[in-house]
Amino acid sequence: MIDFFLASVHHLIVxxxxxxxxxxxxxMRPAAMSPHTVRLLGRFDAAYxxxxxxxxxxxxxxxxxxxxxxxxYMDNPMFWAKxxxxxxxxxxxxxxxxxxxxxxxxxxxxxxxxxxxEEIAKLRRILLAEIHVFTLIPIFAAAMARGIxx
Length: 150
Description:
Order of helices and strands: HHHHHH
Low-confidence stretches: none
Largest sheet: none
Number of helices: 6
Strand content: under 5%
Mean pLDDT: 95
């Protein structure tokens, strides 16, 4: 039963991350940007960070406490590809997180603050890259679950 619980939690968190990335992308548009949007982006980015930490705990709990056992994962190149993709997504998320945090500070100083169009466009490209790499994670997971690479 623990394996079922861990798998369910793991999957729900992944869907949560996908939803937050989609919401951030939808908000990160020059036409939609406003002080209110900057505030929302801060909240979504905080949720993104919490979900990223949660997925690490849930994922590694599955590795060490799940039904397949750690050996299944540790010896599987699809697992490591999945971890690598997660790492790339994490690295890509650093700059947007730092900029959104800076925007939050500027918004507190100036209630009418709206980020420059060039920054919005740059962060949008990074978010798109994050989403593209993120899509590899369930592909590697499906391959791994079917024993590909094991």
